[in-house]
Amino acid sequence: MDERLWSAYDAMGRDYQERAADSGPGLYTQELLARGAVVMAFDASPVMVDLTRARIADQAQVDQAVLGQPLPYPDGAFDVIVCALAIHYADDRAVAFAEFWRVLRPGGALVISTQHPTTDWLRKGGSYFDVRLETDVWHTEAGDQPVRFWREPLSALCGYATGAGFLIEKVIEPLPAETMRGLYPDDYQKLTTEPGFLILRLVKPRDPMAAIRP
Ligand SMILES: C[S@@+](CC[C@H](N)C(=O)[O-])C[C@H]1O[C@@H](n2cnc3c(N)ncnc32)[C@H](O)[C@@H]1O
User: Residues near ligand 1 with C-beta < 6 Å?
Assistant: First the structure.
């Protein structure tokens, strides 16, 4: 098996796009562009990079880069970073948060979403406090696709964030969009009663000492 966790997305790329037309590769880039932002985006999977480029043409720079490794951007380059449903694939989450901190300007914000740790624990069993690689199997047109991800407790994720210097401004356990009720009634019902995802809004304080003062 390919050791790189994003290889599943190389294999699934087009299938993922078709099934997730309202959440697939490049959607956040497109939405941010529509709101007037100047956007730079990256993904580790060359296939997902190509699909995003095809979606947004030359309106934004889209790079192939790996979350959890040094990013190809200068210090303080960004006002806001959006990292949707990818941090659980990064082998080194501490480095991922340290790099987000580095490339964000003081006063900037990181909005990051991931699978809810409680749900991962209930689905996979063992100790809630385990930090380990898990495997889901996604059923795609091309056949069953194993998708590996890091499962860990909430305190581990928050620890990487605060360890890098971020302040946690907001914690959101999102409910499904109303449009899901008709389109995906089973998922809608499930996500209305069980946590599916977790979103953190983190800020890089203008005054770094704010992170350690009581
Ligand atoms: C669940 S998809 C999320 C895509 C999009 N952000 C969305 O919300 O629909 C996860 C994405 O993370 C990418 N990925 C996986 N491991 C990565 C890594 N270490 N660095 C950067 N991207 C990675 C995959 O290629 C895939 O495009």
Answer: 5-6, 9, 20, 23-25, 27-28, 43-45, 48, 66-68, 84-86, 89-90
pLDDT of residue 211: 59
C-alpha–C-alpha distance, residues 111 and 105, integer Å:
14
CB 82 within 8 A of CB 151: no
- CA–centroid distance, residue 10 to ligand 1 (Å): 10
The pair of three-digit structure tokens given for residue 167, joined into one six-digit string: 């302040």
Cβ–Cβ under 8 Å, residues 149 and 134: yes
Residue 110 — left, alpha, or beta (φ > 0 → left; ψ -120 to 50 → alpha)? beta
Spacing, Cα 162 to ligand 1 middle (Å): 23
pLDDT tens, position by position, 11-32: 887 676 666 556 678 999 999 9
Going from the Cα of 50 to the center of ligand 1, the distance in angstroms, rounded, reads 13
Residue type, 128: Y
Question: CB neighbours (10 Å) of residue 7?
Answer: 18
Q: Which atom of ligand 1 is nearest to the CA of 28?
A: 6
pLDDT at 19: 60
Q: Which atom of ligand 1 is nearest to the CA of 68?
A: 19
The answer, as to whether pTM is greater than 0.90, is yes
- As a whole number of angstroms, the distance between CA 132 and CA 151 comes to 6
Task: State pLDDT tens for residues 95-131.
Answer: 999 999 999 999 999 999 999 999 999 999 999 999 9
| Tens-place pLDDT, residues 75-89 | 999 999 999 999 999
